[in-house]
Design brief:
Layout lengths: L5 E5 L9 E6 L8 H10 L1 H7 L10 E5 L7 E6 L10 H18 L4 E4 L11 H17 L6 E6 L2 H16 L2
Helix pairs in contact: 3-4, 4-5
The structure holds adenosine-5'-diphosphate (ADP).
């Protein structure tokens, strides 16, 4: 059986009323395109103002803010690796994004968290490999945790959903 705490949601992450949505941010934390732009637009200017006080964020690390006008209570900003062919530590950096985001959620006693496909847009990470890392890190984390109740993988479009479905069913069969 899959871990019942893991869910897929196809659509816009900014609509989710969860304890935290994760932002695929850039190192400045000052906003950008893709999911980052969508989150800043929906959250309003308060988010950028708080982000400006944080001193940026390194690749693989994560920082938390409030959610402002979002239905989500918090935003966890993490900076994924730029895909450079796979031989530059990209997999480890991407795994670290998931681990550090989950650790921040626990630290702040959050019960529900939603992730976009970090690095799979402008940063160019191959989506299936990225989904395998996302699922493996979340499953590993949940094995040692009882405080998180929901972890949602947000699939932006049908193709992303199919990829996550495939990866989740592979991981179930390999247990
Ligand atoms: P990165 O720079 O880390 O690659 P992007 O924002 O370009 O970040 O893309 C990350 C992922 O987020 C991509 O899979 C993209 O399709 C997806 N995405 C873009 N907008 C949204 C949104 N509003 N909700 C959820 N996912 C989104």
């Amino acid at each position: 059986m899959p871990d019942p705490r893991i869910e897929l949601f196809e659509g816009d992450i900014t609509t989710l009323a969860v304890d935290a949505i994760v932002n695929a941010a850039n190192p400045t934390l000052l906003g950008g395109g893709g999911v980052d732009g969508a989150i800043h637009r929906a959250a309003g200017p308060g988010l950028r103002a708080e982000c400006a006080t944080l001193g940026g964020c390194r690749t693989g690390e994560a920082k938390i803010t409030k959610g402002y006008n979002l239905p989500a209570r918090h935003v966890i900003h993490t900076v994924g690796p730029v895909w450079r062919g796979g031989g530059h530590g990209e997999a480890e950096a991407l795994a670290a994004c998931y681990r550090h985001s989950l650790a921040l959620a626990i630290e702040h006693r959050l019960a529900s968290i939603a992730f976009p496909g970090i690095s799979t847009g402008v940063y160019g990470y191959p989506p299936e490999e990225a989904a395998r890392i996302a699922v493996a890190e979340v499953e590993r984390f949940l094995t040692g945790d009882t405080s998180l109740e929901r972890v949602i993988f947000v699939c932006f479009g049908r193709q992303a959903t199919e990829i996550y479905r495939g990866v989740l069913s592979d991981s179930i069969h390999s247990r």
